[in-house]
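HOLO CASE FILE
Compound: 5'-O-[(L-methionyl)-sulphamoyl]adenosine
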Amino acid sequence: MKPTYYVTTPIYYVNGAPHIGHAYTSIAADVLARFKRLDGFDVFFLTGTDEHGQKVEKAAAAAGKDPQQFVDDVAADFRDMADKMGISYDDFIRTTEPRHKASCAELWKRIAANGHIYLGHYEGWYAVRDEAFYDEGELTTRPDGSKVAPSGAPVEWVREPSYFFDLSKWQEPLLAFYEANPEFIAPSSRRNEVVSFVKGGLNDLSISRTTFNWGIPVPDAPGHVMYVWLDALTNYITAAGFPDEAADRWRFWPADVHLIGKDIVRFHAVYWPAFLMAAGVKVPKRVSSNGWWTVEGEKMSKSLGNVIEPRKLVETYGLDQVRYFFLREKPFGADGSMSHQALVMRANVELANDLGNLAQRSLSLIARNLGGVLPARGDATEDDTALLDAANALPGLLRDKIDRQVFHEGLEDVWKVIRAANGYIDRQAPWALRKTDPARMAVVLRVLVDTMRPVATVLQPFMPTSMAKMLDQLGVPADARQLADLATPLADGTQLPPPAGVFPRYVDETA
Ligand code: MSP
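Model generated. Tokens follow.
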């Protein structure tokens, strides 16, 4: 039986249109899901939309729509975005679905039955934009006297009856859990922040609201809807079949990794494991957080008018170019800037030149000089062996980097091999060998194909369409593109299709 692997994206608020911040986490999660499938895992990849709460209710009202109609429309748009980004999700969850309401009600009942919920009164600060409660001490006062959350979101004073979760009792269990599971929060800078936050002491958490209706009803408590984060986090177990622990899907729980943005670490690394422990449900194995993108160095915002629509980006530069850029340009956990110049540079230099030309040069020599027939391997020189060894080491290197979500390092490993192959072809000069030593020319060309095969195989999760084309041209059968298939050499004498460019160069028409 294949080992299971469960990876999730955050579920996106449907208060507005998708932007690159949403596309980014989804693409990273997609690379992870595709890589695990390639490596023989039984993968469950979940994405979806977060549709309840005050923020969404307000957005629906502002649009003059009924909330359900509004969320149906925006959720469809997010799904379209995921499809256009090539996101290979296995399930798309919407928190307004009946399966999710049932799952939340059951999780609430279990937490309550274990004695961790009590009725009280909440009085304090709330930021609708973050859907988060804040302590006075976390706020800053603006020159006009208004207060804002650390995220910059405006806060309002809220006073209402509320159910509470006894989060304060979970300080020790959480700290013990982080200690025993050092890989639970990544990167380590975020882990340190969480640990010191929890060490600082935890307040009980308000988990129901009574001043609006757009939420999941609290069982047996008329007038109360669940706090949107309790509702939202539960999506990860709903999709795995909860509360039906006999469901086939339940084999995927606990999740292997939740990929999230750095702004929502506290919810995932503190509240979520505490809720699950309180309910007696296993906790996820890892929460890995990404940094934020700015645009040409500026924070993306509606007021600046620089919000980038991911589907536009894809129309301009191509899907695989955008996917590659996202994962190559900055470390996953760090912040980075999306710029036109950087994207074009990577697309033209790294994709079109380094990789595209390598394939084009090697394959057209095979087409021209060998009738497109894949030559046999021959006696390997030191130069041949060094290159082949480096290429064959890629699956192992990538496996490790992808498991740690250091995607950019994995891509750097691949490009080291690509650059080495370009050096090799220049040194060996197979075009010159054609006259002086045709047998050696054939061996050199075979070494190049045997180098490009693992390169294209491990790059499939990043650039599925282009790498499918490249593997076609290398004569790799469609059913032999898993990592495990690399152990079986390509058949000598395979007829290769005529070579064709895989990465068009981006030409700036306005320049
Ligand atoms: N609905 C919650 C998540 C619930 S998960 C149980 C939410 N939604 S969101 O739509 O506001 O944000 C989703 C993700 O987008 C977050 O992980 C956030 O970090 C990410 N990003 C939003 N803007 C971003 C950038 N500019 N750059 C990178 N990611 C950013 O939070």
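CASE NOTES: The chain has two domains: 4-290, 339-487. The first strand starts at residue 4 and ends at 13.
CLOSED: yes
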